[in-house]
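Sequence in, structure out.
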Amino acid sequence: MKLSLAIVALALALPTASYAQDSTAVSKGEYPNTFSSGSANVSPFTNQSKRFNDWSISVGAGVPLLQSADLTSIKNGNGKNLFGYSAYVSIDKAITHAFGLKLQYDRGETRQGWFNTKDAAPDATAVGARTQYDAISILGDINFSNLLRRVDNHSPYRWALHGYAGLGTIAYRAYQKDIKGQRLMTEVKPFKLGSMFMQAGAGLKFKVNRRIDIEGRLMYVVTGDDEFDGGGDAYSAINKRSEQVSDNFFNATLGLSLKLGKHESHLMWHDPLQEIYYKLDVLANKNQDIEVCKKGDADNDGVCDDWDRQLDTPAGARVDGAGVALDTDLDGVIDLYDKCVTVPGPVENNGCPTTTTGPVVETETKLEGIEFDLNSDRILPSNTPILNNAVNYINSSSGAYNVIGATDTRGTDAYNQKLSERRANNVKNYLIKNGVQSDKLKAIGKGEKDLKYPECEPATKCPEWKNRANRRVYFEAK
């Protein structure tokens, strides 16, 4: 078998993964999703943040048609088409949003010749054949829809064109039938140099939901063997095409893909033109002129007005990522003016307690501002100062507290309920690990039923800072 063509095809396919790109959208305030596109500030994309699922399982079935052979499936001899059957199952790994690998198992039967071998030979000159095959291959998967997607494309993103190419090993049994009856002509076992084959083709995928894809696929299989069609000896009367070196067939299939993982989106369905955060270091290295704040920064707190939730922060005040002045002890006096930053106290006493007999305990205490990334229960480094102060405050009080987790309105009710419980438990475990007695804390998940901004239903009605504020954990005195 000539493998040079296969090797060249695979070599050309693999480097396309290096062209995978991501971009940042800064104007709409929307978090990335798989149904809209963003802007044109391009920077390299990776899945290091692990925000996307990258494993899936695919199954499918179809019809193989032997096309390039001495005995074919399409209008051979009697003018009729002979249809076989095929099936495949694969384990799929996405490397980037535009390239992945598949470990695939194929099984099927081609039917070729003048008649179906299930029937009797119509005359002494008619020859029919069938070939049962099993194959294992590794395929490269190129997502052309992501690779070639235009930066100004705002169309819905539920269709994707994929290209496949790869090598593997094939085993088969070829049977021939004539007026004398049926007999085994050729048997090839796998895992030998002579049993290598290649296949390449394209598939069109439709995203049904976050878990299921439907795909129509057309593959061209190069068997590498002139006796695959059941013709028998290379110099027999049937094998009249002396230049033939490989019997090849088309395989048309319809299949399903089940995407695995806990995240909302799969990496192959991630639109690389949607990211909302600038990667300033990458953009600077490309010598691109960028406008960091389109609407300016009126209070000079380092947070653009597009995202600033407090546009009149006093000069010198420390702020969080949303531009809100920090109030560590949550007593209503920002740290800039608070004389007792870690102990709550009334405004008229500059944030200090009015008594020194013991710690101040409020009847209802809430700690806001412990926010989370979309679809994540990971405690962000920016939240650790707030949580460390919460440790001190809870240890100094005699009360018990509910640790309440919440989400925004993306995703299903059941999924958001579990996500909020994970967030609450992670915060509770952090506090216990840092010295809080476990009997003082109770983790509660409220899902999307406890929105700080109820008007964000659905999430697309609100800017991203409001949705982020809904993705939070807070404390409430029992």
